Amino acid sequence: MTTSTDRIEKQILLKAPRARVWRALSNAEEFGTWFGVNFTGKQFVAGQPVQGTLTYSGYEHIVVSVAIERVEPEHHLSWRWHPAAIDPSYDYASEPTTLVVFELTEVDSGTLLRVVESGFDRIPASRREDAFRMNNGGWDHQIVNIEKHVANG
Questions:
Q1: Which segments does the entry list as coiled coil (predicted)?
Q2: Cα–Cα distances in Å, from 26 out to 40, 58, 62, 70?
Q3: Into how many domains does the chain fold?
Q4: Residue 134: which domain range?
């Protein structure tokens, strides 16, 4: 794990084949199961926006919007979003987004998943520290979630 002020980097060795990990990432419905978002649509498609609502208790009113950037089956998935966008009374539309990249590498013992979220230095100073802190902790939680998810089939 490496962090700076602009980027969060996490990685985990998943004891699952790359095809299985890819399905957990690229199928919007399955992704939402472990990530905690009820996404509309089935697959993430480059150039297509996707929305869903959080499924975490107390946060079901929060809409998560991601703009899918790049999809390279079994290797790379990336999107842009507004980090820590949890205040429904705040309009995040004018703010820059961060880029979230998932990279998969097949290794002898499974699949190495690397998650990088970058662009925090462009977030308005009034939100930057909280957004970084919240997402850093969030990614710690999410890599455990995907590990459990792919281990269960």
A1: none
A2: 13, 26, 22, 11
A3: 1
A4: 2-21+66-151
Among residues 74, 66, 76, 83, the alpha carbon closest in space to that of 32 is found at 66
User: Which strands form 49-54's sheet, in the order they lie side by side?
Assistant: 2-3, 7-14, 110-118, 98-107, 76-81, 63-72, 49-54, 37-39
Continuous segment of H or E residues that includes residue 129:
helix 125-151
The one-letter code for the residue type at 26 is: S
| CATH code of the domain covering residue 115 | 3.30.530.20
pLDDT digits (tens, 9 = 90+) for 107-130: 999 999 999 999 999 999 999 999
Q: How many CA atoms lie within 13 A of 54 on its CB side?
A: 14
**Helices (H), strands (E): how many in the chain?**
3, 8
